[in-house]
Design brief:
This protein is α+β, with helices and mostly antiparallel strands. It has one domain: Sandwich (Jelly Rolls), CATH 2.60.120. Strand 5 and strand 6 form a beta hairpin. It is globular, with a radius of gyration of 21 Å. The termini are far apart. The structure holds calcium ion. The site of calcium ion (CA) has 8 residues, from loops. GO terms for molecular function: semaphorin receptor activity.
Length: about 160
C-alpha cells in the first residue's frame, strides 16, 4: 500500500503534509506547538508526537492553550490531544482534550512532558495552538506585588522627588 502511494505521488507532494508534526523541543526558550495547518483545518490521519524538555531536572513545564481550539468531539475518541507527565508511554495523563473548549494551563511535575495529537479519517477542525515555557513559581507573586497600592505609592513619591 505504501509503495503504491509513493509511485502515485512522486516528489512534488508537499512534504509538510506528512512531516511537520512532532519532534523534541527544548523549553529553555518559550515556543509554540500547533496542530498541522493551524488555524486551518488539520488533515485526517495525523499521529503527531512531541516531547518538550526543560534543561534542568528541577524545572517544570507549563502549557498555555490558545482559546481558538477545535478538535472533533465524540468523547475524544477519534481526534484528540493528549498530554502526559513524562516521556514513557505509560506516564500519567495530564489531560486528553477535544471539542471547542481549550484546556486550562497544564503544568508538568518534572522536566519532561509529551504531547500527542491524533486525528482519524473524517471530521476535522481548526485544531490547537499552545505555548510552552518553563514554569516559574515566583511569577504570580511578583505580579501581585506590583499591583498592591502600597508598592506604587512610594515609587510615585520617589519619581516626584527626582523632578524637584
Ligand atoms: Ca476526525
Amino acid at each position: 500500500m505504501c509503495r503504491i502511494l509513493l509511485y502515485m505521488f512522486p516528489l512534488s507532494v508537499p512534504v509538510s503534509l506528512y512531516s511537520d508534526c512532532g519532534g523534541v523541543l527544548d523549553a529553555s526558550k518559550p515556543g509554540y506547538i500547533t496542530s498541522p495547518g493551524y488555524p486551518l483545518e488539520y488533515p485526517p490521519h495525523q499521529n503527531c508526537h512531541w516531547v518538550i524538555q526543560a534543561p534542568e531536572t528541577s524545572q517544570r513545564i507549563v502549557l498555555n492553550f490558545n482559546p481558538h481550539f477545535e478538535i472533533e468531539r465524540l468523547d475524544c475518541k477519534y481526534d484528540f490531544i493528549e498530554i502526559r507527565d513524562g516521556t514513557s508511554e505509560t506516564a500519567d495523563v495530564l489531560g486528553r482534550h477535544c471539542s471547542n473548549i481549550a484546556p486550562p494551563p497544564i503544568i508538568s511535575s518534572g522536566p519532561l512532558i509529551q504531547i500527542r495529537f491524533v486525528s482519524d479519517y473524517a471530521h476535522q477542525g481548526a485544531g490547537f495552538s499552545l505555548r510552552y515555557e518553563i514554569f516559574k513559581t515566583g511569577e504570580e507573586m511578583m505580579i501581585c506585588g506590583t499591583q498592591r497600592p502600597g508598592f506604587t505609592a512610594p515609587q510615585f513619591i520617589l519619581a516626584e522627588a527626582k523632578w524637584i
